[in-house]
Fold this protein.
Amino acid sequence: MEVTYIFGHKKPDTDSVVASIALSYLKNKLGGNATPRILGSINKETKYVLDYFGFKEPAYLNDVKVEIKDMSYNTKAYIDENNSIYDAFNMMQNLSVTGLPIVNQTRFLIGYTNLKEIAKFLIKGDIYKIHSNYTNILKVIEGEEVLKFDDSIEGLLITAAYSSMTFTSEIKLDNNSILIVGDRQNIIEYAITTKVKLIVVVGGSSISAELLNKARQNKINIIFTKNNTYTTINKIKLANYVKLINTNENPITFGYSDTRDDFIDAANHFGHTNYPVVTKENKCVGLLRLVDANNYKKKKVILVDHNELEQSVDGLEQAEILEIIDHHKLGTIGTNNPINFRSMPVGCTNTIIYKLFQENNIPIPKELAGLMLSAILSDTLLLKSPTTTKTDREVASSLSLICEEDINTLGMQIFKAGSSIKGLSANEIIYSDFKEFKHEDEKIGISQITTLDIDDILSHKEEYLQELNKMEQNGYKLSLLFITDIINNGSYLLYNNKGESIIKNAYNLSTIEEGIYLAGIVSRKKQMVPPLLDYLEK
């Protein structure tokens, strides 16, 4: 069953990470094949709760772009170097390709050949030289095995076009000779005596028992064919090893994890229509044609705790979104097909996921219940945020009973684990929980840090202001840092220089200064963002 990736936003917090884990567990219990992923580094708080309840950090997901492994490349389109040119041509015809990767016996890529070079070889190549094996020759000339002593057959073609007397007196044969002959026993005897490499008897002719015994004693390779001399000569050159027309020993290749975008760019740049697909060890696994570029499988994804394109994984437009579960306002993500979209005005995504467990009658394990409770306490600031609803409190109470953890005790442990800023730079603190919002073509960046080390930040506020003002170079009209004091239920505000007038009017402040305390302001979603967007709209 194809895997479904479940992930939160690019700045993973406890709610988004836990939601990915909890929903993956639920989907798998319902018969799915889901796996949680993260889009960035987890913070100290999230690491603490994962460790506390015994969960591994989800693997990182770089993007969900279409990769070569998602595309319908031909897994049979490659040929062994010791196969014949005849085999290569037939394979190209059967697979509707104009070229083939050439591999060795362990299937490692050693080159590439195509129809153009085969035609060139047949017209301009040395048609009298054969470098192949007994099996290839037997197959190509539709022969019958008579005597076989050597697998490798290499030599020069000679046809018995003269009279027997002229041939035996004028033509010198040796172990490097491959004789094409009809029912001419004297010439055949001469060839056996001189120990040629191979005798091909054409036209359905045969060899006397006496000469056959002599050939066996001299270890002469012999093949019978019903084809005439002309047909045999024209066919036998196709028995040569395909490696003799290796046009490129280092062709352009693609690996499983290369993207479709990479493939399209290379095809447009180099102009080729066929490209070998290889493993990391350079083992050939098939051929990707330009005409197959639109035949691929999209990765299946479920989004939790966000529905803004800017906050989601790279390449999302190339994926198939199956479902979105979120508690934020509707964002910019669109889909081509109807999907399950579960949105509720609650304080935490895990509150919604708890409801999904109930609706599907799936019990929540003790450790997972503790993880989900931690996410709710984190996102609702220990159930004190204005985003907290009656539903959040009821769910938190139920999860507390399952995991046997006291809400206040667990909440303070989580808060203490995640609030320390020791060892972090101003830049790291600002971007630890940073979200971008848009008003028309203008960008607003809002960061929030909940900590007990408030005095430490305010005493070094110049460092933070420098970082906030830098963001104007990246197109941010407004950049803010809210330092939330969960004990006193309010936030201190730092902002970029050009934002002063907007902030003063948006929050209806009589006076304003860097580090101003905003009592009761603790929720980005309900209290920080809406006044700004409303003011800009007016």
